[in-house]
């Protein structure tokens, strides 16, 4: 990889997501050599992926070059590399561009979509975990309407305009709200010769409420907002299969649809070498102690979505969200320096800053520790928080201007089929 060995200890970080970037920033001016490896040369702001899928934002405005984040840091190296294996015996990572030795290794590889072993659903459904996947979804949604215009088969037309979202978490809820707004505000103008009132949006949820991790008030209000927007919410229904045409469930309910969006779960993005049952636990995440150390190692760590850390308040592991990832990254920065200097390590404590989700224009729900609120003010808070956490001044400005423009004009101008998506037909 052409990275010189220096007198500084080498810290290799796998993944430039929220956790990896937070850690790298913390180590930026310290006497360590930091090597960050990521299979993309950009950081993805995943909370806004649904806006890319629905034409509200261009993909570039939620991505940021990793090299630019860390450009002024001495002793810092970035390599565009897919890490394929971790050799814990030789303290080495194996990648598609070569091998690299480490003194300390931090796995911050995030998570991947969890299909719970259903290969049909994996093959035929759409996921929304990466920018390319969001662009695929954007293309498919738009292509469906173009195809709906052409067919004279009513069943086929309905299936093309029928959107089924599996999972009533923040991703499913936000996507459903955005699709409902497109149906109301954009489709009638773009497709005047198509009866777009027939378009349907369904959210299928196996549990008894949507936004399960949030307060009962937030969950109920989100449901009310979605229903007002015309979204059908199906609770206590578990999707069992999808062959590319028909969605079957564990009830009598079935859906004919050309688009099933799978937002029903994620699992840790583990890497060969540390992916055996000795290390992996609930949610296919790597079991770590309160110092983020992988069991059995003092110099190998996991942080963010891929790490399973139990705390007093989170006996099922910390949530797979941006805040735990950022806080773990920052804390590990301090602990790595402590470890190198032979000082005691500090146990991680999570400062829960709450949760929020937006349902659409003027509609959001926010749960803070001591204050829970919904509606227009919540929507402003949601926008402010998302702008604040976006990386890069340009991205913040572009997103802000887009939001103002979309708000004033009731528009979503990025509804472009730049890279057509070819769905595999069953
Ligand atoms: C659609 C969606 C909406 C979300 N909304 C919210 C929200 O509103 N609020 C919230 O708090 N959280 C939200 N989340 C969750 C949040 O984005 C994650 O919890 C967070 O990104 C986890 O950070 P991370 O650093 O652990 O992983 P990530 O941010 O996923 O970063 C992992 C990085 O590792 C790289 N990588 C993975 N494997 C390898 C490999 N083998 N080799 C090299 N590089 C690799 C990836 O390319 C990626 O850059 C959302 C997630 C999604 C998908």
UniProtKB/TrEMBL annotation:
This is NADH:ubiquinone reductase (non-electrogenic). Residues 353-407 form the External alternative NADH-ubiquinone oxidoreductase-like C-terminal domain. Pfam families: NDH2_C, Pyr_redox_2. Keywords: FAD, Flavoprotein, Membrane, NAD, Oxidoreductase, Transit peptide, Transmembrane, Transmembrane helix. The chain crosses the membrane at residues 376-393. GO terms for molecular function: NADH dehydrogenase (quinone) (non-electrogenic) activity. The keyword rRNA processing does not apply. It catalyses: a quinone + NADH + H(+) = a quinol + NAD(+). It comes from Seonamhaeicola sediminis. It is an enzyme of class 1 (oxidoreductase). Belongs to the NADH dehydrogenase family. Residues 10-329 form the FAD/NAD(P)-binding domain. Its EC number is 1.6.5.9.
